[in-house]
Amino acid sequence: MFTDIENLGQTDIQNGAGIALGGDDFAAQNASRSWSLSALDADTLRFELRSGDHWPGDGTEVERSEISDQQDVTNSDSVHVSYQFMVENGAQNTAAWLVIGQFHQDSSSAPGRSPPFEIDLSGEHMVVEVRYQDASGEVVTKDLFTDPADIQRDHLYDMNISATFDPAGNGHLTVTRDGDQIAKYDGPFGYLDQSSVYWKQGIYRADASETMAVQYKNLSITHGPDTLVFHVSEDAYQGDARFVVNVDGQQVGGVQTVHASHAAGAWDDISLAGNFANAHDVSVEFVNDRWDGTDSTDRNLYVGSVSLNGQSLTGSDAQLNFSSGQQHLGDSVELAQNGSVTFDMTGLNWHI
């Protein structure tokens, strides 16, 4: 049984507990300590790991407090993961290795291999790695990003991961952090004997003496053969603009965060995956408007275009709700108040 995060109870989420989160179902993997996993609110999980916290499925040389997605993402399907995370202030990381987010290969792949994608802490430095097998079957590890600066403790990072796993050579990966691209990769991605991957988050490390705690918020996972891309920007004020997406009346993924400044002419491309080949209406709903009386104290959302599998509609194609402070601005649409604009995708479906 999988329980929505808001109904879990605040603390002491035991090993094996089922959690409905981010559009998927997860299972807790921890040592069943009172501190291992807590739900701080309806959107936030807190993972804590202390020396000797061994998950029953591991040996005694590693420590783990994670949740594991119970839905697999098939090779060649697109998968998009967005979330926020924060490493709490505390003792420096001394573990020989430490993973704070990963796509793990399915059980059909040979056991004992490191995951084909992971976000690590090496000391206090964030690292992004991918793995695949070469023609001889040897595992190749590529470090795509190593932050020269220490991770900012108590800073809430915005992460977006877009990936397609394909061991044969057609894999793709893009990782952005706080709106900046930190990793991009094209090529073989994953193991030759894997057929799918699944997402895991939390803390997984070699034995270490220090206590570490990490918070994860607003997880959104979408995957499937079709991809929607939203070309968006914002007027930020006391926080970034946020929106949700509905396809034919059903929400897809979680709440999405915009970072690109409209005044600076910048745009973000935010992707969601799923089965959209027969989609009719796609709506973008602005959910956190704020206005304190002046143009400089106003948070707004702009949609430049929406594309489905590479076929695009511009913001000027959006159907407006004029009572919600919306207007066309050239080829884009401005959402000045909370509310939705809708795009009719039926014409694009003929091109899929």
Write the SSE topology.
Blueprint: E1 2-4, E2 18-21, E3 24-29, E4 37-41, E5 44-49, E6 62-69, E7 73-74, E8 78-87, E9 98-105, E10 117-122, E11 125-133, E12 139-146, E13 157-164, E14 166-177, E15 180-189, E16 196-206, E17 212-224, E18 226-235, E19 242-247, E20 250-257, E21 268-274, E22 281-286, E23 290-291, E24 298-308, E25 311-314, E26 326-329, E27 332-335, E28 339-344, H1 346-349
Parallel strand pairs: 1-2
Antiparallel strand pairs: 2-3, 3-6, 4-5, 5-17, 6-16, 7-16, 8-13, 8-17, 9-10, 9-16, 10-11, 11-12, 13-14, 14-15, 18-21, 18-24, 19-20, 19-22, 22-28, 23-24, 24-25, 24-27, 26-27
Outline the structure in words:
The protein is 1% helix and 56% strand. The protein has 352 residues and is mostly beta strands. The model has no long low-confidence stretch (mean pLDDT 92). The strands form four sheets. Strands 1, 2, 3, 6, 7, 9, 10, 11, 12 and 16 form a ten-stranded mixed β-sheet that branches. It has a seven-stranded antiparallel β-sheet with strand order 4-5-17-8-13-14-15, with no helix packed on it. Strands 18, 21, 23, 24, 25, 26 and 27 form a seven-stranded antiparallel β-sheet that branches. The protein has two domains: 2-221, Sandwich (Jelly Rolls), CATH 2.60.120.200; 225-349, Lipoxygenase-1 (Sandwich). Strand 13 (157-164) and strand 14 form a beta hairpin. The two termini are 37 Å apart. The longest helix is centred in the last third of the chain and has 4 residues, at 346-349. The protein is built from one helix and 28 strands. The radius of gyration is 21 Å and the shape is globular.
